[in-house]
Write a structure and sequence with these properties.
- By secondary structure, the protein is α+β, with helices and mostly antiparallel strands.
- It has two domains: 202 residues, 3-Layer(aba) Sandwich (Trna Endonuclease, Chain: A, domain 1), CATH 3.40.1350.10; 135 residues.
- It contains eleven helices and 16 strands.
- Strands 3, 4, 5, 6, 7, 8, 9 and 10 form an eight-stranded mixed β-sheet that branches. Strands 11-12-13-14-16-15 form a six-stranded antiparallel β-sheet. Strands 1-2 form a two-stranded antiparallel ribbon.
- The longest helix is centred in the last third of the chain and has 21 residues.
- The termini are far apart.
Length: 350
Amino acid sequence: MRVFGIQPEGKFSEYVHTPFQIDHEEKVLEDWLESNPDGIIEDGNILIIGRQVATNLGGFIDLLGVDREGNVVVMELKRDRTPRDTIAQSLEYASFAEQLDIKQLEKILHLYENDESLRLAEHHREYFELGSDEAVAFNKEQRIVVVGQRITPEIRQTASFLRSNGIRVTCVEFSFFKDNNGTPLLSQEIVVGKESVKQTHVASGSLPIITEEVFLASLDDNGRAVFSRILELAKRKSMPVHWGTKGFSLNADIEGIHVAICFVYPPDSVYRQTIRTALLDRGGVEQKTAVPEKMLQDLREQAEGTGLFVPAGRDLKCHIKRKLSDTEIDLLLTWCESMKKAIQEYGLKE
């Protein structure tokens, strides 16, 4: 494939094809796929839930994801293996993925996102913006995606054969180019796929933990005004903050045991720019503390009374889409302090 840029005067300027192995390492391509999961498969996006996921036979799946229907997607980079080895390893990894139940998939997600509060079903629903009437059964089918700079005829033929026999295989070719100024360009083409016993241990690589500086820089002005005040409250009132790969949780401390009050997410996360309560779910107050049911209901009503929260599963969420007044932010902070007071008053469950 030849790729051209169009100059202002209408002339073509050809991009120079750059072999992947010269300027890039496999990790770079893996990073790109991880950051741009849209368009990899022929029928939509992929929610990435794991990277370098350890299998029961000693292998490591490059990227593990879930599609809109809840099917597990095994993504493998071709590297320098023979066509036979590439297909064999992909099938081996898919056979491992077939045995994973939702708890194990959720555990992989926890390791990947470094956040044990996440629930796969809710995370998936938010990512794909599913309606309340759209039900998903996880891992009913497994899909294979083979990615490489060149998908050989042997791989294409075998992948097409597998597809014709009900195994959903997609093959994607990537090519890299540079213009005369060194500007990189990536082309992507789906070359196959456009035609129509449980494991006892799972492991996955993790995304890096975000810092306060990077987190605040990722917010818009509306979110920064609110979330910076929450972080100031945490420092002032000695409320532990646990940083994850995207956002943070605000916690109450009971003799060294931390109980989540709420979770805070930036605009580029699955949950957008939101505050999500930890009253009844996500390993929060109901599960860890002796706060009575009536008090939990009062705290929920207090949050709803601010006019900022709406239901989100068993809990509530506040989506920061506009500038909040100082009074509204004060109401949020007061609610957080009320949560801390209740948690510390009633203590942990025995």
